[in-house]
Amino acid sequence: MFRKMGPGDFEPTGEGAPDWAVTYGDLMSLLLVFFVLIASYSTLDVVKYRDLVGSVQTALGTRDRTLDNPQLDSSPTAGIASAAEERERRWVEREVEATVREIGGPLQMIHSREGLRIRIDGQVLFETGKSEIRPEAMPLLQRLAPPLRRYPYRVLVEGHTDDVPIQTALFPSNWELSAARAASVVRYLISQGEVRPDHLTALGYADTRPVAPNVDETTRARNRRVEFLLSLPQQNGPDLVPNQIPDSIAPFLPEPEKP
């Protein structure tokens, strides 16, 4: 506050906010910034959210069973994931991209709605009609093992073949061949790459998912491949086999007769 003394002359009157108010305002601003940072790093716990909403609605008598399986939108992957897992996922994608650029050739990287795919030509990994990994292909899998080892979600290893039928004592059809090749890669990653077994899944698709029409040897060679699908969080659900499967036979067994 100022008191007018004359034309253009002002003199402080001594009135105004006390000195402690400035320090108090700075403290409140710092607390606000602190809580904003805490909120920005927090994640939503779906289980606690579901229990909280269910408890409130049960108490009010308005429980909606659709809230037992809420569809929550959580960026960046439309699934519920922690900040640490998302940082690991982005780090792995950058490492894979750098490896693909360095090696090139038989190694490709494809972004899809299912997740990041790493594609390797089948003739690089296996001989025709066999499921044993070529010794010269093992260094390639060793290069991929470290980022796969750090990937926080499930990694699907898919085996694919062309449409040329196979019928041997070991592989009666392309289904057995594609599944055996995927299993060989998974087994190698576990034993030599030290990738956790519960993070890997082996799948065989035979010739059901070609990337090119099977019209000549060139296109058939493209279809003979192994792909790594780095799945997203929402794909670690009922679409995949869980780590523990409940006994589905016991409830259907007949009850023992009472004496």
What does it look like?
With 259 residues, the protein is α+β, with helices and mostly antiparallel strands. The protein folds into two domains: 40 residues, no CATH class; 153 residues, 60s Ribosomal Protein L30, Chain: A (2-Layer Sandwich). It is 39% helix and 15% strand. Helix 3 packs antiparallel against helix 5. Belongs to the MotB family. It is found in: Cell membrane; Cell outer membrane. This is Flagellar motor protein MotB. InterPro entries: Bact_OuterMem_StrucFunc, MotB-like_N_dom, OMP_bac, OmpA-like, OmpA-like_sf.
How many DSSP helices?
7
CATH class of the largest domain: Alpha Beta
Which bin fits the share of residues in helices? 25-40%
Number of domains: 2
CATH topology-level name of the largest domain: 60s Ribosomal Protein L30, Chain: A
CATH architecture designation of the largest domain: 2-Layer Sandwich
Beta-strand content bin? 15-25%
Low-confidence stretches are 63-79, 235-254
Question: Based on CA inertia axes, which overall geometry fits?
Answer: elongated
Fourth-tier CATH superfamily name of the largest domain: OmpA-like domain
Number of strands: 7
Mean pLDDT: 78
**Distance N terminus to C terminus?**
99 Å
The SSE string, one letter per element, is EEHHHEEHHEHEHE
If you compute it from the alpha carbons, what radius of gyration comes out, rounded to the nearest whole angstrom? 30 Å
Helix- and strand-based class? alpha+beta
Transmembrane segments: 20-41
Keywords: Cell membrane, Cell outer membrane, Cell projection, Cilium, Flagellum, Membrane, Transmembrane, Transmembrane helix
GO cellular component, one term: cell outer membrane
Region (Disordered): 237-259
